[in-house]
Each structure stands twice: as structure tokens, then as C-alpha cells.
UniProtKB/TrEMBL annotation:
It comes from Occultella glacieicola. Belongs to the short-chain dehydrogenases/reductases (SDR) family. InterPro entries: CBR1-like, NAD(P)-bd_dom_sf, SDR_fam. The lineage of its organism: Bacteria, Bacillati, Actinomycetota, Actinomycetes, Micrococcales. This is SDR family oxidoreductase. PANTHER family: CARBONYL REDUCTASE 1-RELATED, CHAIN DEHYDROGENASE FAMILY PROTEIN, PUTATIVE (AFU_ORTHOLOGUE AFUA_3G15350)-RELATED. Keywords: NADP, Oxidoreductase. Gene3D superfamilies: NAD(P)-binding Rossmann-like Domain.
Length: 278
């Protein structure tokens, strides 16, 4: 994966933020958490998070940090048996953790994964759409000479996979009138910041994921479910082996968005906990 475009200032950012709608009669505890009515924030130890692609890279670190914050964590993995050591590491650190089978592009898999989470924990509060692929780095793929098979494969995972997981997770969140959805986007998705043609399929897929973030956030405004996109930054992982930014830093903004108080932003795009231009 190529290095990302350098981050510019965020003036002119068109990030959309705002509090979710509330029913009359709800009160907050001073930290933005509702303390009356059906949208009361469950305690951290009651909350359950599903992290897609949670078996390695930024996804595993997001799971680790959510566990350290007290949440129960399900690692969504294509091969859960291979993630046994990861589950053990989380449990050794005091986190209630499990691995669930989840291939975000396999028909029915997101629904089955959510059903498994519900069987094991009885609720689902947080979905982190972290699973992603980057398979069209320059110079092998120019947008003016498109390899549409690679474009389709990229969009299938990075957009449709995340969308399918949203569809599977929202009913469980709606039932509790509480939810947080975080979509792992990229600075490379920013139309305003893009000044080179590298990785066109990846960029397009993540820009579309940003729009998905906005429309789902609008759809769920009245349901107590906050939906945001996060750029982890150019972070060292199998996807970006030359990066120097540690996964601890890359996971910070997604974890912040996954644990927002009820009056936190929704429909936004963030890096380092600050709005990023679309
Ligand atoms: N690293 C960066 O510099 C960077 C920068 C900006 C944004 N991001 C985004 O951050 C997210 C995590 O990136 P990363 O660097 O941690 O990547 P990574 O190390 O390559 O890990 C990717 C994860 O996604 C999973 N995955 C891929 N396709 C899947 C599918 N169909 N179903 C379920 N899981 C699937 C992989 O599972 P397997 O182990 O089964 O392959 C793996 O767990 C991605 O969305 C990426 O686009 C990364």
C-alpha cells in the first residue's frame, strides 16, 4: 500500500456532526450520557463489541483497547480457530473475549456472526467495521486503465462487507436503543486531500464507505446509535508494513468513536479524534 497523502489543515472541513435526536424527558449526567429513558448508556462491562477482521493488525488492537476499557469483545475472523491465541491473550489480560466466524463478503456470514454474539453475550452494542483490503497500489493500477475485477473485489469487501455487517448488527442495537458503529476509512478516502491517483479502487471504496457512514447515521439518528468513520492513519500492519505509526495509535480514534457518550458526534469522519475533510 502506498504512503497516504500528507494531512493538511482541516479548515473547510465539511464533517457532519451532531447529537442524535432524543425523546422529551431524557436527562444527561453532565458527561452527555443519558441517565433516564430507554437510551441510558449501558455500563462498559455490560457492553459487547464485535470487531470485524479482529484477528490481526489494527482490528486486534481495537479489540484489545475496547477490552481494556471493560467491554466484552467478539473477534470477527474468517478462521476463528486460528485466532485462539489472540482470544487467550485478551482473556489473560482480563477481557471477556471470544472469536466468531465472520467473512464479511460471504452470504449470510454477518447474520450468523451476530446471532453467535447474541447467543454468547445476549446483546450487541458496538460494531467496528475494520475488515478491509488494499490490492491496487501504484503503479500496477491506474484509474485511467481500470482493472475492474480488482475494483469489484475491493468494493465488495470494503463497502458491501461493511454494509452487510451494519444490516446484521442494527436490529440488536435498536432493541436496546443504544449502539456505536465505527467504519475504518482512510485519509486516502478524502476527496479534498487527494492529489495523486494511487490505489484508485481502495480510495473509491473508502470514499463510498464514508457516504455509507453519513446515510446510516442519518437513518439511525432517532435510535440512539451513533455512526462515524475513522482514519487510523498510516499504521504499521500487514497492509502497511513500511509505516512507522504503531497500532496503538491507529486504534485510538476508532476506540474513542466506539465508546462515545450519547451526545457525541454522528455522521462524522475523524483522524486523531479531530474532524477530517471529506
Ligand atoms: N494500515 C494502514 O495504514 C491503514 C490506513 C488507513 C486505513 N486502514 C484500514 O484499517 C483497517 C485495518 O487495516 P490493517 O492495516 O489492520 O489491515 P491488515 O493487517 O491487512 O488486516 C486486515 C484484516 O481484515 C480482515 N479481512 C479482510 N477481508 C475480510 C473478509 N472478507 N472478511 C473478514 N475479514 C476480512 C483480515 O482477515 P484475514 O486475517 O482472514 O485475512 C484481517 O483481519 C482496514 O479497513 C484498512 O483499510 C489501514
Amino acid at each position: 500500500m502506498p504512503s497516504p497523502v500528507p494531512r493538511r489543515g482541516i479548515s473547510g472541513s465539511c464533517v457532519r456532526t451532531g447529537s442524535p435526536q432524543r425523546s422529551p424527558g431524557h436527562e444527561t449526567n453532565g458527561e452527555g450520557d443519558l441517565v433516564t429513558g430507554p437510551e441510558s448508556t449501558p455500563s462498559a462491562t455490560d457492553r459487547v463489541a464485535l470487531v470485524t477482521g479482529g484477528n490481526r493488525g489494527i482490528g486486534f488492537e481495537i479489540a484489545r483497547q475496547l477490552g481494556a476499557a471493560g467491554l466484552r469483545v467478539a473477534l470477527g475472523c474468517r478462521r476463528p480457530a486460528d485466532a485462539a491465541d489472540r482470544v487467550t491473550a485478551l482473556r489473560d489480560a482480563g477481557t471477556e473475549a471470544t472469536a466468531v466466524e465472520l467473512d464479511v463478503i460471504a452470504p449470510g456470514s454477518p447474520g450468523r456472526a451476530v446471532a453467535t454474539v447474541m447467543e454468547v453475550y445476549g446483546r450487541l452494542d458496538v460494531l467496528v467495521n475494520n475488515a478491509g483490503i488494499a490490492i491496487d497500489a501504484w503503479p500496477s493500477h491506474r484509474p485511467s486503465e481500470p482493472d475492474l475485477d480488482r475494483v469489484r473485489t475491493t468494493i465488495e469487501t470494503n463497502l458491501f462487507g461493511a454494509w452487510a455487517c451494519v444490516g446484521a448488527a442494527v436490529p440488536a442495537m435498536r432493541a436496546n436503543r443504544y449502539g456505536r458503529i465505527v467504519n475504518l476509512s482512510s485519509t486516502m478516502a478524502s476527496i479534498e486531500l487527494t492529489d495523486d491517483p494511487r490505489s484508485p479502487a481502495y480510495r473509491v471504496s473508502k470514499s463510498a464507505l464514508n457516504m455509507l457512514t453519513v446515510v446510516v447515521a442519518e437513518d439511525l439518528r432517532a435510535d440512539g446509535i451513533l455512526v462515524n468513520a475513522a482514519s487510523p492513519g498510516y499504521t504499521r500492519s500487514d497492509m502497511s508494513p513500511k509505516a512507522t505509526r504503531p497500532v496503538e495509535d491507529g486504534a485510538d480514534t476508532p476506540v474513542w468513536l466506539a465508546t462515545l457518550p450519547n451526545d457525541g458526534p454522528t455522521g462524522g469522519f475523524f483522524y486523531e479524534r479531530e474532524p477530517l475533510p471529506w
